[in-house]
Amino acid sequence: MHAAVHDSIAFSFDPQQVADYLEANGLESTIVESGSSVAEYDVVVTFGHEETLFEAPWVHCIRAGIDEFPTDRYAETDTKLTHSPGIHATTIGETVAGMMLSFARRLHRYRDNQHENAWRVESYDAAFTLADETVCVVGLGTLGEGVALRANALGMDVVGVRRRPKPVSGVDSVFLPDDLSDAIADARFVVLCVPLTEDTEAMIGANEFQAMRDDAYLINVARGPVVDENALLDALESGDIAGAGLDAHTEEPLPADSPLWDKEEVILTPHVGALTDSYHEDVGALVVANAERIQRGESMFDRVA
């Protein structure tokens, strides 16, 4: 089997790394540039979508989110589409835990002070512990379960929101999307782990910020458009919420003139919550496993179209 490694992967890591992994595990690999024909390859491993990918029999997206991929068109063609939802639970879970700990223990503020050579102590009532605080995880797929597991280990009370009222390990209560306002009302942290769809676009807006506690923090490790950014800015400026940890943004890169840069109670990361030094191996292992399943005549896993 011959794999094309699309150069769009460079957004996350060096494409040569996954090409080398695939070669070491029995797949011939070639790095291809954006716009190149991929008709001669058995699979294209890519970060983003472009029209030429429909030439291939199989496309594998290295991300969990596939909102940029026209899944309906993939389903109508002979091109199979798979993605990578199962490899991000640990990285996203740890990113969220890190943000929550930073807010609770005020580490982000002390880091800011360090750059000013300033020995300043936060007010007595600023710091708190995560133990016994409530976190609401909106979206209890692989990413959300990874967040819930780590929050539970930190002694937090975990509630969640999902489309089906199915119990999830480590989650005390599960709410339906229609009950989102009730789910987030008592949470110190609201963590967004949902895919971007018509139903989830701008699901967090002015009404939801008003429903949240004024000492609550929003953390978005999903997609930027899941949050109404103007409503978020209003909520931060009015004190409707205490702060936000944002790994996903409406516009990426975040514009230099965005007011979010100057908010002391906002932690910004450039959509890197899932990155790790073994990302290329995790992606490669998924591709190799599915290639082996194809050769055995078995159905592919993580297929979305």
From TrEMBL:
InterPro entries: D-isomer_DH_CS, D-isomer_DH_NAD-bd, Dhydh_Halo, NAD(P)-bd_dom_sf. The keyword Signal does not apply. It is an enzyme of class 1 (oxidoreductase). Gene3D superfamilies: NAD(P)-binding Rossmann-like Domain. Keywords: NAD, Oxidoreductase. GO terms for molecular function: oxidoreductase activity. Residues 98-273 form the D-isomer specific 2-hydroxyacid dehydrogenase NAD-binding domain. Pfam families: 2-Hacid_dh_C. Coiled coil: none annotated. The keyword Oxidoreductase applies. Its EC number is 1.1.1.-. This is D-2-hydroxyacid dehydrogenase. It comes from Halocatena marina. The gene is ddh.
